[in-house]
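Researcher: Please generate the 3D structure of the following complex. Treat every line as part of one assembly.
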Amino acid sequence: MTIEEQSKDEILSEIFKALSEPNRLKMIRTLNESDKEITCGEMSEILKLSLSTVSYHAKTLREMGLTNTRKEAQTKYLSVNRQTFKKYLPGFLDSL
Amino acid sequence: MTIEEQSKDEILSEIFKALSEPNRLKMIRTLNESDKEITCGEMSEILKLSLSTVSYHAKTLREMGLTNTRKEAQTKYLSVNRQTFKKYLPGFLDSL
DNA sequence: TTATTACTTCGATAGTTATAAAACTAATGA
DNA sequence: TCATTAGTTTTATAACTATCGAAGTAATAA
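Model: Done. Output below.
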């Protein structure tokens, strides 16, 4: 295994850890299937989770580069970051 | 989300959990890159982990259907289960 | 300024997990 | 039978994580 592969394993396993939590995977599926951005409050209603829990998961997904965040006034709009998936899990979003 | 997708999410998140542990991901990479089966003892040397820890991880991977196990006398030979990857993460092994 | 909205962070808790040593099991061989 | 080999399970521990309520922050509106 090369040095590059070692760090790729680390990045990949962190991405997998982010996706291993069922509610986070649901968030990705929801964002992937949506034709528009979704706010944290909307996600809270869709997943029947408290806003603080959604915020916690959203932070994890954002920090792993799996989602984009656009802030407009107090509202945060979430969307899936297709580039990251394309780079590390090509084809995954299409198979989801 | 349909009922089928719900259970697919659960299976997928369990697969991701299995792959989110760096040593298990290394085991999959090692098996994927090998042209022959690998024993638990060999894996223990390759990953510098105790045999009990390798056995513990091997069990997780086997139970998720990510590896095959072939027993010959006392020895267990591990290999990657390509069908499971093809079904749930098509293209992943090639991109690994 | 005060209130409201939308989200984040803190704090506490309950549950999960990775690790290895020790004990155990099963197969082979002397 | 006894010893060796290969792997599993048990046990204990230390570390991590998901959850939510409460408190905090920042932007807007009255």
